[in-house]
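Hi there, hope your week has been kind to you so far. Thanks so much in advance, here it is:
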Amino acid sequence: PTQVVTREQMASFLVRAAHLQPAAEHHPGSYYFPDCDPASPHDDDIGTLWEAGITAGCDDGGALYCPDQQVTREQMASFLVRAADLQPAADHHPGSYYFSDVSASSPHDDDIGTLRETGITRGCDPEGTLYCPEGDVLRDQMAVFLARAFLGY
């Protein structure tokens, strides 16, 4: 439970939680991203995640997936919003409105706000003023985020 979630593990968590099905012409992640290992147990799920439009990779050009990189809390927000098809509130505010440590220039700012508005996160500090966007996501924390996003807990 205290191990950090990697991007390849995140793919498998999301495919299972969202009951995602491979595309009709499915390819594993190693087909789309040269840094994915065809022998990895997560390779098929990475391909499914790409085919569902939930990931475009880890770099600006979308050429890499970075399967062994640790998932940050801000990346997790975008993964969850896309995979669970979470909708922002009618009076939506970005994450930087709620949390003082979220940058308004972050590509994850809107998704962090959506997680806050849907009750999936209250932040990383007792006061609820910080989100810790660059912090790692632990497996036990990911279980809670998945339960809230997909099961409504």
Remarks:
- The chain is about 40% helix and 0% strand.
